[in-house]
Amino acid sequence: MKRNHLLLLFATFLTLMLFLPEKASGQRISNRVFRFQNRIEHDQRPYHFGFTLGLNSMQFAVTPDEDLMDTYGFEHVLVEPDFGFHIGIVSNLKLSEFLDLRFVPTISFADRHIEYYTDYYTYGPDGDANYASRQELEVTMLEFPLHIKYKSERMLNTRAYVLGGFKYTHDLASIEDAGGGNGEVLARVARNDLHYEVGVGFDHYFYFFKFSTEIKASFGMGNLVRPGEEDARYYDSISRLNDRSIMISLLFE
Fold it and tell me: How far is the C-alpha of 79 from the C-alpha of 4, rounded, in Å?
């Protein structure tokens, strides 16, 4: 419940940040933001910095064992994602007129769950899923992405862009090498991973700064499943477990 309240406040803050700068700029300079190019010198800088914040959804792509039911007694092994948020620092190096190299170290917070079903995937009378067992995983992820950003021609005070690259991640909350506290450890998840990422976004040039909206998809390349402390069927039943995430970000540069 506390996390839901925090995310609601965070989403409200992002909405206000999205609309207030434009309104304030228009009041100060009589809508100059719409009639002239702002921050013309911004794209001529060899490098610049900024910060980013936003919401994310972290989950897994799970590949169960082929003999899931016969060997391990599970009808399904499913993943339940949850929403979280992230903050980071933007470092941008200009390579050419339309190409930038970006390094955006980020810290992300989220929850995700692995659910084991001995029966068909249904909901009970209370609205909860009828899983037999559930592994809860908190995520506090340090992310170190390196991207190439390709920008379109500038259209007055807006331009579109695409980006792609790789990132290394380190989960500070991982229980790969530690106990699970008071909870059961059915299956562990590796602490380190390497991802490839793709994304799209829009740059908006305001009078005092550049504001960007961006969405990225991230695909982990390593098999993350590790042995737990309980019955071996909880981790042996998973052939492959890959990280997946979607990030919606606001950037101020």
Answer: 19
